[in-house]
Amino acid sequence: MNKATRQAVIAGNWKMNKTRPEAKALIEEMIPLVKDADCGVIICVPYTNLETAIAATKGTNIKVGAENCHWAKSGAFTAEVSADMLKEVGVEYVIIGHSERRQYFGETDVTVNQRVRAALDAGLKVILCVGELLNEREQGITEEICSMQTKIALAGVSKEEMKDIIIAYEPVWAIGTGKTATADQADEVCGAIRGVIAKLYDDATAQATTIQYGGSMNAKNADELLGKVNVDGGLIGGASLKAPDFAAIIAAASK
Ligand SMILES: O=C[C@H](O)COP(=O)(O)O
């Protein structure tokens, strides 16, 4: 399997945006624009929008994901949501390890791994985020950081379970800043992550794993980024909040 046979996946990460009526309107605008996509289409939305998004996307090619889940099945964890709760609502995907969770909410590689485990056990598919800080890139340790984050997050994940894992390479310095990694930088790190998967599992698993780029991807730069051999799609923040922009990225991934 190679780039030609791996399915590109474009996932929107709405972050903390959209009330329920706004979510419904955005999805309704999006549906006709993305219905002919030749790639996977996912929208990851705030917890309060999950039921709205699931109802609004029923019978369409848009899958719904959450933006995080807790590692425990239940218990005294105020404000957290379990993977089983998401599954029961009808969620298919969950983002885990987003840099904003790591940066602002104390998420560590170990808790990312625990959340990945809980998600897989509940039958959810995971979009696992890894990526370096600006000072780590400047120190020349980008691949080391991404490799370490990937290895720890996937500890205890079997080869068979890798079919339910998408990896999103998101350089932290490129998120929401308008600074995009160059297509070559994105390709290089996505390729290095693929190398880690090959070492952890085998080459076939590495070649079959979808590895996205995320960080200021938009309608203008999507073509170049998605044209790279190791970039199998995108995790899109800001541009996923505007239906025409999100649709343009999906069109670029469908070429
Ligand atoms: O999860 C998405 C990423 O954080 C990228 O966000 P952005 O496209 O707004 O830079």
UniProtKB/TrEMBL annotation:
Q: Which family does it belong to?
A: Belongs to the triosephosphate isomerase family.
Keywords for this protein: Cytoplasm, Gluconeogenesis, Glycolysis, Isomerase
What PROSITE patterns has UniProt attached to this entry? Answer: TIM_1, TIM_2
Question: Carries keyword Cytoplasm?
Answer: yes
The gene that this protein is the product of is: tpiA
Assembly and partners? Homodimer.
As for what it does, the entry says: Involved in the gluconeogenesis. Catalyzes stereospecifically the conversion of dihydroxyacetone phosphate (DHAP) to D-glyceraldehyde-3-phosphate (G3P).
Protein name in UniProt: Triosephosphate isomerase
Q: Which CDD domains match?
A: TIM
| Location in or out of the cell | Cytoplasm
> Which HAMAP family does the UniProt entry name for this protein?
TIM_B (MF_00147_B)
In this chain, substrate is annotated as bound at: N13, W14, K15, G176, S216, G237, G238
